[in-house]
Amino acid sequence: MHPLISVEANPDIPQDMKKIISMTDEVSYMENNQVKNIFSDFPFVFPESTPSGKIVREAVSKQIYTADVEAPAGCESCFVMFKMSFHPNWKVTVDGQEAEKSVVFPFYLAVPITEGFHTVEFSYHPNNLKVWLIVFEIILIIGFLFRKQIVSLLNKRNTV
């Protein structure tokens, strides 16, 4: 949970907020009938960090990343985040089954998991269009070079 910040005069504040501060101006707030400065007195309260999982084993090849991960008990909304830019051509499997991938800030790839041990694999499968474009480009370059050679030979023949 992060601090809730509102610039409204009378904001709707959730009931489960542990601490509420009311700003009196741009830098001051009231607490226990005392005016405090938001920069010198840190008013925010952060909860305990959520339990983190562990990477037990990982393997990296050209376009595949595989990891055995352990998610802690009681993890209701755990995600494995892969710090690689999201692209629709990424395929994700969890324990050999294709999984739904998500985009997480700042545009990384993530997949939800349940508690326990899991094998997660992220693999990139490029679009076939790129392969065809490269083949076409190579053919085009060879064609231009071949044409240049023919024109050069014809020019030599015409000058003789």
Q: How helical, in percent, are the residues?
A: 10-25%
What is the rounded Rg? 30 Å
Overall body shape: elongated
User: Within the largest sheet, what's the order of strands?
Assistant: 4-5-11-7-8
What's the number of structural domains?
Answer: 3
Beginning-to-end CA distance, first to last residue: 85 Å
Instruction: Give the integer mean of the pLDDT values.
Output: 85
Q: What fraction strand? A: 35-45%
Q: How many helix segments? A: 1
Provide a descriptive summary of the structure in words.
- With 160 residues, the protein is an alpha+beta fold.
- It is built from 1 helix and 11 strands.
- The chain folds into 3 domains: 1-47, no CATH class; 54-124; 128-160.
- The protein has one helix at residues 128-159, and strands at 22-23, 28-31, 34-37, 54-60, 64-71, 78-85, 90-94, 97-98, 102-104, 108-113, 116-124.
- The N and C termini lie far apart (85 Å).
- The mean pLDDT is 85.
Topology of this structure?
Layout: E1 22-23, E2 28-31, E3 34-37, E4 54-60, E5 64-71, E6 78-85, E7 90-94, E8 97-98, E9 102-104, E10 108-113, E11 116-124, H1 128-159
Antiparallel strand pairs: 1-2, 2-3, 4-5, 5-11, 6-10, 7-8, 7-11, 9-10
Summarize the structure.
The protein is an alpha+beta fold and 160 residues long. The chain is built from one helix and eleven strands; from the N terminus they run βββββββββββα. It has three domains: 1-47, no CATH class; 54-124; 128-160.
